[in-house]
Amino acid sequence: MNWRNVVRSKKRAQQIVFLLLISGGFLLIFSLMKRPFAKAEKIDYVIGDTVPLQAKVYLGNVSDDSTVSMDMTQFQVSEAMEKKINLTYQGTSYKVNINFIAPDINQLIKVSDRVQDFVISGNYQSVFGVDERYAKDVTYSIPSDQLKLGEQTVSATLYGQTVSQKLYVYDDSNDMGRLSIRYDYANQDLTTIVKQYLTDEKLTTNQVAFSYVNTATKKVVQMNENQSMIAGSTYKLPLSMFVEDEMKTRGYTLNTIVLGTPLKELLEQTIVESSNHTAEMLVEYFGGFYNLYQQKFGVYGKNEHASIKTIDVDTNRTTAYYFKQVLEYVWANQDKYPYLIGYLKEATPNRYYEMYLQRVDIWHKYGLYDDAINDVAIVHERNPYLIALYTQGLTEYQFGKLAYVINEWHRINQDK
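-> structure tokens emitted (416 positions)
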């Protein structure tokens, strides 16, 4: 064989080997590039959320629809932290870094600046309103069965974050029975009874304003009736009266579309659900706050004994005397307001004026703002009565008991 051919053959063989090595290397690199791998970056996970099982969350080089398996207890942590977890994908184990993030406690536990009523040994869920996904992980500073009567502060802790709520703790097992016999209802006037109750509750008389009318005897009893009080959502009563009056004037029906919504829904949301957004829509559509408060609402009453004649447009303050007149107008013109009355019957059952008067048919609209609790109601005892009750600084429990006291006085004196 020619030596030159031998040299050429060796070079060719070397080239082939070199090419094979290179191609093998490429194949190896390609296969490695296609192999799943644990992501280097930390994977964020909000504690309490559903644990994702999609493989692509944790690994690279995986299909979109593939999943991993893992021990879910690895995600049961009590506070924010970083740690590695183990998972399995197609028979291979991987370790990934998880950044456990504590959810914002203020989004999961609802607390209020107001003192909240709480029945001793009750369920904290009723006042803290914890998102059900996290309820089992919340700890409280005081077990509910160890609370003492009166005002106390209870803290709720979740994932290292704490919020506090002031509670007014009470035992309602015998309260109504005691209230039924505590005061001399038969021989004392209503104002005296109310003042005695306020004293017993360590409240002052300027925290309450009311106007009472017995529809049968026409007897009127009032206390601080001209005092300026926060109206809250009670303004939605004359608003709904005006809307129903305008429906007749304009030829509207409940099915008429106003601002993209049937009037039936707007009225129902305003009274039954007490929607501020819906009420403001109606106000703007039917003339605006200044026009309604200063002019239109005066059709239903006007307090000539106070600087606030109806409702103050800048402060949303009013008087019990004005709302006594509004209730009298509704009572005298029930045939004009069939829709409104129907919604008043549905509104906020078993709360505010109805809290301890659930056996009585009550048409009412409550108002709640800051530390003000109000209710304007038509109460259907044997002889119905009208009550505009405005308070400041009472708990809902104290308000409910006050309503019970007023009703008890009426029940005994309704024929006088």
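The chain has a mean pLDDT of 88.
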